[in-house]
Write a structure and sequence with these properties.
It is a single chain. By secondary structure, this protein is mainly alpha-helical. It has one domain. Helices cover 83% and strands 0% of the residues. It is built from 9 helices and no strands.
Length: 247
């Protein structure tokens, strides 16, 4: 029964995506919604991304210095390890998990509210492809903004690491040497590529749960929770496969 329900849900998701990924009927309205979603889903998330990344970068640097570094290891080990953690996992995968909670719940609750208040039904009655009109700007908006947020996260994480130099954790020269040691540009591109897939998962899965909600306000809250949980699980699974493919 559980397997059948999972297959049925996946089939409904694919059918909805088939309606979403169609050419907009009115390009002027689409671009207006697209710009709106850029601000709502991306720009409004910059603050929390910078804040979390700054402190995580600082904490990672301190923890590595205190627990891993030793007289037998080069002085740049702390900076090198901090850079690898920020580039390979935190700024792409972990940050997207955080955004799944913030952005995903917002998308699901917004679309779910439109469903229970019959706004989506009104669009369908007028002959408008409501799935494309509502969901496509959110999907493209998040795909556009997530790579930028990843870059901001990387920079803020490094800034947090440099902030620990003021606390005397390590010298600025040692940290800089570690950040530059054996640098591989592909790791940055890998983080950006992974973030594109994660952005699609967050936006499409959250939109699906909001669009298919049935009932009242209680069911909207439940759909929002399911959207965050499902998006997070799918991001973790996708992270495994993408890391294996891109590495």
């Amino acid at each position: 029964m559980l397997l059948f329900k999972g297959i049925s849900t996946f089939g409904s998701y694919l059918m909805l995506m088939g309606r979403v990924l169609s050419l907009p009927e009115r390009w002027r309205m689409f671009f207006k919604q697209y710009i709106k979603e850029l601000a709502a889903l991306g720009v409004d998330s910059i603050g929390i991304v910078l804040l979390i990344s700054f402190f995580i970068g600082a904490v990672i640097c301190i923890q590595i210095k205190l627990n891993i570094a030793s007289p037998w290891m080069p002085n740049y080990t702390t900076g090198y390890t901090t850079r690898e953690i920020m580039l390979l996992e935190f700024s792409s995968s972990i940050m997207c998990l955080i955004l799944a909670g913030k952005v995903g719940s917002n998308i699901a609750s917004e679309i779910g509210t439109m469903r229970v208040t019959q706004q989506i039904d009104a669009l369908d009655i007028m002959g408008i492809n409501s799935a494309s009109f509502i969901i496509l700007p959110k999907v493209l908006g998040l795909i556009t903004m997530i790579p930028m947020l990843v870059v901001f996260s990387i920079v803020a994480g490094f800034a947090g690491a440099y902030a620990t130099c003021a606390l005397g954790v390590l010298s600025t020269d040692d940290l800089t040497a570690g950040l530059l040691h054996d640098f591989n540009q592909w790791y940055v591109w890998m983080s950006l590529i992974k973030s594109l897939f994660f952005a699609f998962i967050i936006s499409s899965v959250s939109s699906f749960y909001g669009y298919t909600v049935e009932g009242g306000s209680f069911d909207v809250g439940k759909a929002s929770t399911n959207a965050v949980v499902s998006s997070s699980i799918l991001i973790l699974f996708a992270d495994i496969f993408l890391t294996q493919i891109l590495s």
